[in-house]
């Protein structure tokens, strides 16, 4: 029965969490959730044919990436300086800058233009690479989790700042 299956899987989940230590702290789970969301949108983009749909989805991707990189740069990265290797953190900032430049280029184009789709695709690949750097074993998130910061409390601040920025950057209509 469904209820039994559900209860069983919950028990299994609890056991697994206990065995592996603990669940991700809020800061990490929020940032990972953003990563999954935007990866899904990049996949979705591949299926689109119409320019208007492409434009609308790209705008959603661009807003999400701007807000995500900004909360990482304002809160997560600086507060983790010391817990995460300097080189790794520096590279993350440089990767954000590269992504922002590509986003700005795409924003200056129309979906009908040559290389628009290619640029969106390359941006997606670039983000996949960056996300791997953050999430892989020994990566930024793993190092952060070993550090001293209270990542649950930081998660609350990330969440609040994200809401502010979504309203601020998302409320503004381009053109
Ligand atoms: Fe991230
Ligand atoms: Fe990042």
Q: Assign the structural class, choosing from mainly alpha, mainly beta, alpha/beta, alpha+beta, or little secondary structure.
A: mainly alpha
Order of helices and strands: HHHHHHH
Mean pLDDT: 90
Q: Name every ligand kind in the structure.
A: fe (ii) ion
The description of the largest β-sheet is: none
Alpha carbon gap, first and last residue: 55 Å
Given as residue ranges, the uncertain stretches (5+ residues, pLDDT < 50) are: 1-8, 11-19
Radius of gyration: 18 Å
Helix content: over 70%
Overall structural domain count: 1
Describe the structure in your own words.
The chain has one domain. The protein starts with a helix and ends with a helix. The protein is an all-alpha fold and 175 residues long. It is built from 7 helices and no strands. The structure holds fe (ii) ion (2 copies). The site of one fe (ii) ion (FE2) has 5 residues, from helix 2 and helix 3.
Features:
single chain; 175 residues; mainly alpha; 80% helix; binds fe (ii) ion
The gist of it:
This protein is an all-alpha fold and 175 residues long.
Strand and helix map with partners:
Elements: H1 2-19, H2 26-47, H3 51-80, H4 86-107, H5 116-135, H6 140-146, H7 151-171
Bound molecules: fe (ii) ion (2 copies).
């Amino acid at each position: 029965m469904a209820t039994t299956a559900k209860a069983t899987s919950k028990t299994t989940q609890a056991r697994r969490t206990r065995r592996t230590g603990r669940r991700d702290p809020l800061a990490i789970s929020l940032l990972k959730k953003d990563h999954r969301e935007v990866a899904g949108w990049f996949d979705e983009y591949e299926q689109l044919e119409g320019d208007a749909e492409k434009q609308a989805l790209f705008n959603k991707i661009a807003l999400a990436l701007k807000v995500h990189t900004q909360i990482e740069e304002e809160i997560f990265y600086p507060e983790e300086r010391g817990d995460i290797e300097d080189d790794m953190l520096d590279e993350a900032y440089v990767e954000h800058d590269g992504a922002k430049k590509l986003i700005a280029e795409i924003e200056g184009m129309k979906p009908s233009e040559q290389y628009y789709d290619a640029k969106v695709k390359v941006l997606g690949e670039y983000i996949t690479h960056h996300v791997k750097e953050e999430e892989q074993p020994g990566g930024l998130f793993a190092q952060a989790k070993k550090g001293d910061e209270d990542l649950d409390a930081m998660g609350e601040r990330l969440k609040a700042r994200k809401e502010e920025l979504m309203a601020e950057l998302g409320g503004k209509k381009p053109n």
